[in-house]
Write a structure and sequence with these properties.
The complex is a heterodimer of chains A (544) and B (199). Chain A is mainly α and 544 residues long. Chain A is 64% helix and 1% strand. The longest helix of chain A has 36 residues. Chain A is globular and about 65 Å long. Chain B is α+β, with helices and mostly antiparallel strands and 199 residues long. Chain B starts with 8 loop residues before the first helix and ends in a 7-residue tail after the last helix. The chains are: A mainly alpha (544), B alpha+beta (199).
Chain lengths: 544, 199
């Protein structure tokens, strides 16, 4: 495949002006709540996803702060251990399934059709359905906290038999909510694949697409491949709990270790589901604010695909201590380390894009730069954990917690924030307030590092994760982590304030809101009218 | 799809085809998740990786005893939640040569006031020794029923195969007691009792 250069596509947009806003062919949309309940518009559904995700982010964040408040000093102060366990579990579940994943789906809804010149998603009604499943799923999940016996308390990985034989009675509801959230993700993935494969502007080949579309296409395939495995695993749990089967029950000939294999066969691709779209976002932002085209477009695509394929071959690195044979320890250690190669290609390409670029530090770029640095720190601690013999010491300590929070908070979350800052002018027609954004950025970066960096040390010193109390020697590290967590949590309120201000007003943004931005979405007016690209734009490559 | 009527039919057909393919893949992956269960069992049985010994009696192999090395076989017995039995073993460990067979007696005791069904589930560590531990007779092949207060002595007869890997000097055989299904139903009912009706 001849590598083509994706950036800078001048567009002949015959329809944008006439497509502006109220397309007369459509009946007037219902008003009020019904409008949002029934909408099939990708932009409105995208906004719903993003607002939902932000809400979940704050709920999951409050749970995290309960955890951090309890860990502020040794001893049991605020909550009983049973409730502490529910908080750690719910924090993880809400953040993974309720905040990060829906945020990326929301961004895809908004931006994929705009970036490929499609009028909408391929299946708009399905799109509506897949969004409205989410509030149902998470209302159900949160309601388990009020049930007798409490909510899920077995960690977000819900290992059997903790989640079967010893689980609270509400676990059946937890399983149902996970099923519903899973169906929502699957339907979203189908929609994104169908859109990208079929609705691209005439002349736009796959290798011409912006990387955000590419990373999402690959993510959607991962979702199709592994969400059914999760559904299968929780269905087996359901049957073990309620129908007397013994999939994970040693008494009946089952095996709890099988649960871990099934879970991580889903779980490892899942962690890439949460990071690949972030790669796409950063690959859009860094070229824009470096005023250069992305270095190594084709290698970025291949690296993403390589990471996705490798993600199916590394799952047991989460299970080094369950008693794997030496051959398996070695196999999973080497495949895990192999992932550093395509990831390194990506980081190299981002840096090479900035090299000799004309860089400016607008808010999206600040978050994207923080992403590159901090995600790499998370990647390095991942490499340390990949070393099987060393992992026997790190396993289930705060070092693991530090590692995955570095890839998920200043990794995935910062990329989502960067995307919000990058596309807010397109969504609202206004630039976000720069002063406020800078405060938000710096408080977030300092807060995140104050929270999670000390966890490396408490983990290496042997502090186990998921415990409400700890030995005295970890007190100082935990004090710092808790202070950082509250600082980070509070600074996210600035983000809400900033969004409200940006929706209501601010400096007006032109269609091409950022000087170096070249993708198709910048050819439609800001704010993007409800209906865009009703007549497909003609896509021209720069080199033609 | 009101937004789509401007786009050509070709793309709508394409969308339908894509959706059909993804649904097919989804169904396949869901089935695959369940297929992993028997696959996992077969894999473990062939390799012995999860330490599960064969579920039925194996024939003794008459082979020359390898007198050049001694292997320690340790026995651990464990109770479990939901079955108030005791399981004792006459000796905590035996030492023997590969190729030799040995008999060890285990004593089951039901101190409860009702008759109960239970089962002892074996596990071998290190896992790579599992296929080389041949059980000629074992109480673990069947479920046991013990009357209230009953004491029952049952034998384990096993042989260590000569091809036991060189680096295995000690082998641990763990028996964990579990209640069998009908008792489990009782247990489940007890756990959920008073927590509202879930049916």
């Amino acid at each position: 495949m001849a590598p083509k250069l994706p950036l800078h596509h001048p567009v002949e947009q015959s329809s944008t002006a006439s497509a502006g806003g109220q397309a007369s062919a459509h009946a007037a949309p219902p008003r009020g709540l019904m409008r949002w309940l029934l909408t099939t518009n990708h932009k409105e559904i995208g906004s719903l996803y993003l607002i939902f995700s932000l809400t979940m982010f704050f709920i999951g964040g409050v749970f995290a702060l309960v955890v951090r408040a309890e860990l502020f000093q040794p001893g049991l102060q605020l909550v009983v251990p049973e409730f502490f366990n529910q908080m750690t579990t719910m924090h993880g579940l809400i953040m993974v399934f309720g905040a990060i994943m829906p945020a990326f789906v929301g961004l895809a809804n908004w931006m994929v059709p705009l970036q490929i010149g499609a009028p909408d998603m391929a299946l708009p009604r399905l799109n509506n359905f897949s969004f409205w499943l989410l509030p149902v799923a998470f209302t159900l999940l949160l309601s388990t906290l009020l049930m007798p016996g409490g909510g899920p308390n077995f960690g977000w990985t819900f290992y059997a038999p903790l989640s079967t034989t010893y689980a609270p009675p509400s676990t059946t509801f937890f399983i149902l909510s996970l099923h519903i959230a899973g169906i929502s993700s699957i339907l979203g993935a189908i929609n994104i694949i169908a859109t990208i494969l079929n609705l691209r502007a005439p002349g736009m080949r796959l290798m011409d697409m912006p990387l955000f579309c590419w990373t999402w296409l690959i993510t959607a395939f991962l979702l199709i491949a592994v969400m059914p495995v999760l559904a299968g695993a929780v269905t087996m749990m359901l049957m073990d709990i309620n129908f007397g089967t013994s999939f994970f029950n040693a008494a009946g000939g089952g095996d709890p270790v099988l649960f871990q294999h099934l879970f991580w066969f889903f779980g490892h691709p899942e962690v890439y589901i949460m990071i690949l779209p972030a790669f796409g976002i950063v690959s859009a932002i860094i070229p824009t604010f470096s005023r250069k085209r992305l270095f190594g477009y084709a290698s970025m695509v291949y690296a993403t695909a390589a990471i996705a394929i490798l993600s199916f071959l590394v799952w047991a690195h989460h299970m080094f201590t369950v008693g794997l044979p030496l051959a398996a320890e070695l196999f999973f250690m080497y495949t895990t380390m192999l992932i550093a190669v395509p990831t390194g290609v990506k980081v190299f390409n981002w840096i090479a894009t900035m090299f000799r670029g004309s860089i400016s530090f607008e808010p999206p770029m600040l978050f994207a730069l923080a992403f590159v640095v901090q995600f790499t720190i998370g990647g390095f601690s991942g490499l340390m954990l990949a070393i099987s013999p060393a992992d026997f010491q790190y396993h289930d300590t705060y070092f693991v917690v530090a590692h995955f929070h570095y890839v998920l908070v200043p990794g995935a979350l910062f990329a989502i924030l960067a995307a919000a800052y990058y596309w807010l002018p397109k969504w609202t027609g206004h630039y976000p307030n720069v002063k406020l954004a800078q405060w938000h950025f710096w408080l977030s970066v300092i807060g995140v590092n104050l929270t999670f960096f000390p966890m490396h040390f408490s983990g290496l010193a042997g502090m186990p994760r998921r415990i409400p109390d700890y030995a005295l020697q970890f007190a100082d590290f935990n004090l710092a982590s808790s202070l950082g967590a509250f600082m980070f949590g509070a600074s996210q309120l600035l983000f809400v304030l900033l969004i409200i201000k940006c929706v209501r007003g601010g400096e007006k943004a032109p269609a091409k809101a950022w000087e170096g931005a070249e993708d198709l979405e910048w050819s439609v007016p800001s704010p993007a009218p409800l209906h865009t690209f009703e007549h497909p734009p003609t896509f021209r490559r720069e080199d033609e | 799809m009101p937004e789509n009527h401007a786009s050509p039919n070709a793309s709508r057909r394409g969308v339908r085809r894509t959706v059909a393919k993804t649904l097919f893949a989804l169904a396949g992956m869901f089935a695959f998740a369940f297929a992993l269960v028997p696959l996992y069992d077969v894999f473990c049985e062939v390799t012995g990786l999860n330490g599960k010994t064969s579920g039925s009696a194996q024939a003794i192999v008459h082979e020359e005893v390898d007198a050049s090395r001694m292997v320690t076989v340790q026995f651990i017995t464990r109770g479990s939640a939901g079955l108030p039995w005791n399981l004792d073993v006459e000796t905590r460990q035996v030492r023997l040569h590969p190729g030799q067979s040995a008999e060890v007696d285990f004593t089951f005791h039901n101190p409860a006031e009702t008759a109960l069904w239970g089962r002892a589930v074996p596990s071998v560590s290190p896992a790579e020794a599992t296929p080389h531990l041949r059980k000629l007779a074992c109480f673990c092949f069947q479920e046991q029923r013990l009357e209230a207060g009953e004491r029952l002595e049952l034998p384990l007869v096993f042989q260590l195969a000569r091809d036991l890997p060189e680096d295995v000097n000690t082998l641990t055989l763990v028996y964990t007691l579990y209640p069998v299904t009908r008792d489990e139903a009782v247990l489940q009912a007890r756990v959920t009792a008073g927590k509202g009706d879930e049916a």
